[in-house]
Write a structure and sequence with these properties.
The complex is a heterotrimer of chains A (about 250), B (about 150) and C (about 600). By secondary structure, chain A is α+β, with helices and mostly antiparallel strands. Chain A contains 9 helices and 7 strands, in the order αββαβββββααααααα. The chains are: A alpha+beta (about 250), B mainly alpha (about 150), C alpha+beta (about 600).
């Protein structure tokens, strides 16, 4: 009586649509223990209408090749573990339905670009988090702590709502051509998280954060290519947030 | 199950973020690009209008026309500003492209040296020409010169 | 192998772990070991809110909150603990706000509050607005805010380290220890996923904050990583697990997928309907209807489906109707969950109702602790230097059914308490010597698992476990179905001893870790089913069709499950209440049940009506 995955497609697909289909995944493999070269492996699995790329990767790992390695946790787009390059675009594997990425042709799956690959689809996230930590991603306040909550109007709260949605999946930063070059650019994710505090009416640390992002590798390296906005699985308007930070810096300088 | 294509670039080496450098240079650079861009639109279109459209249009252009314009200090300043702004704007643009796309430090250095060299040559020559332009150089062949040169005294 | 020494070691970097870290790291040398990057923890998936009687929008007080918690838990709640939680809830919310959490605001700029299942005014009169929230991503904001403050405080993290063993001075799974002898927790053994290296952490205080075990079920809102590691490690060292038969099934999981749609949807006015379009909750809970506690709503939904009023071609789900709400209101208050419906089912919630069905959500049971988060080794004695907080622990503030939002409260209130007591103990205690071969057992286990010849696949055994649990130990249970589940689990335990992994490498061997996690899942499923077999009554999240009434005379007690050697006596902890004498033999050990009394202060058990 439990609604199972097998029943779901039949229930949700319009009549006439085939509930299962075969799909081929071309996965970029790299094993640090077996040589330095990365390779492409192809796997074909049978998927259902509501299956996501993550389900297909699980089918491969659980039924075909247990050594396929990738990160995942919540499997519904809130933990940010499984950002990867699917058909050349950064997405979360758990939020990308197979039927939406043209399953007729092999789907390519690669690790996100610009961060060192550790194994298969797993990259070293440390440089990414290092940038995040540098922008002081925490509320900075002066003066005495209030005994109750700080007062903030609904409008003031709305001002930075968009950038509070960030799940630190690195899809934006690793889609940025400027970051790909040498990884020194702070990257969209760090700027988004700075934005979240710079525009928080309760925060007193905006000056320090703007100073940090005024760096040679800071916001001015943004070329507004909009890759980040397109890549964000949470729908954050990343490029706009970066522009707002630039604007704040100019306002402060003059 | 595994079709293997071996010729892929090896995954990149580990790295750490470098020490940060803080200054307002990039800020002013960014503002300069926007401001000079806006100004250049005015300068260039006015320049194109005067040279190509007004009066007899493009047919009027010769050494004499250029000499005539530069006899007026307004046009000297106009063209000088246009030259400098365009060169700084363009050079800075190419510089950021090099920064974005040249992956190795050495490549960057070499490309930027070329860029700065080209900048210097064009700006110095251009500036000299604006202030020293002579439509009738004394030792030039007569048929290359505008007609009014012959009527001028020696 | 590397050895580390810290005053306090915290296992798990979700809400409870990081809340504890914020308390402890300022006081003593603290390390947080987590099998995920902290921001990946499943606290981030919590949606609806965190209740506290702030009374920002209407009259409220913490005593009502205590009552709701006790009643929601079907009176199996320890009332002293519930009182502490409800009282400290107010500070917990204000703490978070001061740390920077962006709560939604009232027009006056204060923290806004909304209705939530089971939270009422004046002991059940009507639904009350008590839940403090940030859209439908309150858990995300809590997790981010706590991590941000950990960055601020420079907390030391060991990310992607799997804790695989708990080191203690006595192994109770090898036999009982006299009451007057202290049992100390002295360290943990961890496996660095990236390098495959073993790390031994010696500590004065160890806090377990490893979260739940939802993956014992197939349809679950839980993350793939929620495999009951902490509970299983404690169990394997002979420490008891409390009230494991009580598992919460969240009413509104996306049908077929189990992805959570917050109760906040109903808090904002959404309505559950059956195939006849009837608002069926009016029949089951006339007063608060769709906002009844989760066990009641989940059972009502399952009952509608069972009686043929389910929707869809297979009549196997009901509908959550938001179509009468303003799209702008939905966007402002419920943006994420409506996106889930669009992404995963292709349903537009503005205009179409969303198919939902109960999904395994939360373990009310866990490692027993007192109100200071100290772990109990039986119903009275604490383990020195061992603490637990969050879903892994059972204080017990949730009793037999947790109220919505009380989990986010639990992690903050008891996470903070765990951090404080652990740090205070570490300041007075000294390190206990670790055995020479502290990591030997873990290393042997890993090597043996890696080197096994080809056998069963981990995924096949896990799937079989999840299927039997879904079929036999879900919303409706009977003695027969539970017996079937136990038979299946015994067989799967045997198969588990032959499972093999394909990845033989050292670095990032997630194949190997999934095998170890399967072992944890089997152990947790086993005690869950054994405890459920023994409880021949229906209470909260545990519903026995063969015993549909609550039986306060015989079962107003917490279940304690112990793992003991086959030779041990069939009773732990002195006197055994009559109905808690169940023993199940397994290959190489047995599970012995015991009981623990329920603390009652203000509230006499009453019939639970909404």
């Amino acid at each position: 009586m439990t609604a199972t995955l097998e029943d779901a497609p039949a229930a949700e697909q319009p009549a006439g649509e085939i509930p299962t289909f075969d799909v081929t995944l071309r996965v970029r493999r790299y094993s640090p223990e077996n040589g330095e070269e990365s390779t492409w492996d192809e796997f074909t699995v049978t998927a259902h209408g509501t299956d996501r790329v993550l389900d297909a990767l699980h089918m491969i790992k659980w039924e075909k090749d247990g050594s396929l390695t990738f990160r995942r946790s919540c499997a519904h787009g809130v933990c940010g573990s499984d950002a990867m390059r699917i058909n050349g675009r950064n997405r979360l594997a758990c939020k990308t339905l197979l039927k939406d990425v043209n399953p007729d042709k092999p789907i390519t799956v690669e690790p996100i670009k610009g961060l060192p690959v550790l194994k298969d689809l797993v990259v070293d996230m440390e440089p990414f988090f290092a940038s995040y930590r540098e922008i002081m991603p925490f509320l900075i306040t002066h003066g005495n702590e209030p005994s109750r909550e700080r007062i903030q109007s609904a409008e003031q709260r709305e001002r930075f709502d968009d950038t509070t949605k960030c799940i630190l999946c690195a899809a934006c930063t690793s889609s940025c051509p400027v970051f790909w070059t040498d990884g020194q650019y702070f990257g969209p994710a760090a700027i988004v998280n700075a934005h979240r505090f710079i525009f928080d009416s309760r925060d007193d640390g905006a000056t320090q954060r703007l100073e940090i992002l005024n760096d040679k590798e800071g916001v001015w390296r943004c070329r507004t290519t909009f890759n980040c906005t397109e890549a964000c699985p949470r729908g954050i308007e990343v490029t706009k947030a970066i522009a707002e930070v630039k604007q704040a810096m100019i306002t402060r300088a003059f | 199950m595994a079709a293997t294509v071996p010729d892929l670039a090896a995954p990149r080496d580990p790295y750490a973020r470098r020490k940060t450098t803080r200054s307002n240079y990039e800020l002013y650079g960014w503002i300069f690009m926007r401001a000079s861009g806006a100004l250049l639109i005015v300068l260039i279109f006015a320049h194109l209008w005067v040279n190509l459209v007004s009066g007899e249009g493009v047919n009027a252009i010769d050494f004499g026309f250029v000499g005539g314009k530069w006899a007026n200090p307004v046009w000297q300043v106009w063209d000088l500003v246009m030259l400098w702004l365009a060169m700084i704007h363009g050079t800075n643009g190419v510089r950021t492209i090099i920064n974005d796309y040249a992956e190795r430090d050495r490549t960057r250095l070499v490309l930027k040296l070329f860029l700065y060299l080209a900048f210097t040559v064009v700006v110095v020559l251009g500036t000299l020409v604006i202030f020293t332009f002579d439509p009738c150089p004394t030792d030039a062949a007569a048929d290359l010169l505008p007609s009014f040169c012959s009527s001028l005294p020696g | 192998m590397q050895t580390h020494q810290y005053d306090v070691v915290i296992v798990g970097a979700g809400g409870a772990g990081m809340r504890a870290a914020l308390e402890a790291s300022g006081e003593v040398r603290t390390a947080v070991i987590s099998k995920l990057y902290p921001t990946r923890s499943h606290t981030g998936a919590a949606q609806g809110g965190m209740c506290a009687a702030l009374a920002n929008v209407e009259e409220d007080n913490w005593e009502w909150h205590t009552f709701d918690t006790v009643k929601g838990g079907d009176y199996l709640v320890d009332q002293d603990a519930a009182e502490i939680m409800a009282k400290e809830a107010i500070d917990a919310v204000l703490d978070l706000e001061r740390m920077g959490l962006p709560f939604n605001r009232t027009p006056e700029g204060r923290i806004d509050q909304r209705r939530f299942g089971g939270h009422t005014r004046n002991h059940g009169e009507a639904a009350v607005r008590r839940s403090c929230y940030a859209a439908d991503r309150t858990g995300h904001m809590i997790l981010q805010t706590l991590y941000q403050n950990c960055v601020k405080q420079d907390v030391e993290f060991f990310n992607e380290f799997y804790v695989l063993d708990l080191i203690t001075t006595h192994d109770l799974s090898q036999g009982d220890v006299p009451d007057d002898e202290d049992v100390h927790a002295t360290g943990v053994v961890a496996y660095d996923l990236q390098t495959g290296e073993i790390h031994v952490f010696q500590a004065k205080s160890i806090i377990f904050a490893t979260g739940g075990a939802g993956k014992i079920f197939k349809t679950t809102s839980n993350a793939h990583t929620l495999t009951g590691d902490g509970m299983a490690l404690a169990l394997r060292r002979g420490f008891p697990l409390e009230d494991m038969e009580f598992f919460q099934f969240h009413p509104t999981g996306l049908a077929g997928l189990g992805i959570l749609l917050s109760e906040a949807a109903r808090g904002e006015g959404a309505i559950l309907r059956n195939s006849e379009g009837e608002r069926f909750m009016e029949r089951y809970a006339p007063t608060i209807k769709d906002l009844a506690p989760r066990d009641i709503v989940a059972r009502s939904m399952a009952n509608e489906v069972r009686e043929g009023r389910g929707c869809g071609p297979n009549k196997d789900y009901v509908l959550l109707d938001l179509t009468h709400l303003e799209p702008a209101h939905i966007d402002a208050k419920l943006p994420d969950i409506t996106e889930f419906a669009r992404t995963y089912l292709g349903i537009e919630p503005y205009t179409e109702p969303v198919p939902v069905y109960p999904t395994a959500h939360y373990a009310m049971g866990g490692i027993p602790t007192n109100v200071d988060a100290e772990v109990l080794r039986d119903s009275h004695h604490v383990v020195k230097g061992l603490y637990a907080a969050g879903e892994v622990a059972c204080v017990s503030v949730h009793g037999s059914n947790r109220l919505g939002t009380n989990s986010l409260l639990d992690i903050n209130v008891f996470g903070k308490r765990a951090g404080r007591t652990a740090a205070a103990y570490a300041r007075t205690a000294s390190f206990t010597e670790l055995p020479e071969d502290a990591a030997a057992r873990t290393v042997a286990q890993l090597d043996e698992m890696r080197d096994r010849p080809d056998g069963d696949r981990v995924a096949d055994v896990r799937r079989a476990l999840q299927e039997t649990m879904d079929a036999n130990a879900q919303v409706f249970r009977t003695g027969e179905s539970l017996g079937q589940a136990l038979t299946d689990i015994r067989e799967l335990q045997a198969r588990f001893r032959t499972v093999s992994v394909q990845d033989k490498g050292r670095m990032f061997n997630t194949d190997l870790l999934e095998a170890l996690e399967l072992g944890f899942l089997l152990d947790i499923a086993e005690v869950t089913v054994v405890a459920a077999i023994n409880r021949k009554e229906s209470r909260g999240g545990h519903y026995r069709e063969d015993f549909p009434k609550r039986d306060d005379t015989n079962y107003m007690l917490h279940t304690m499950t112990y793992r003991r050697p086959p030779s041990a006596p069939d009773a732990v902890d002195g006197t055994v209440e009559e109905y808690f004498d169940h023993v199940e033999e397994f290959d190489g050990y047995k599970v012995v049940l015991g009981s623990k009394s329920v603390t009652q202060t203000r509230y006499e058990p009453m019939e639970r009506k909404y």
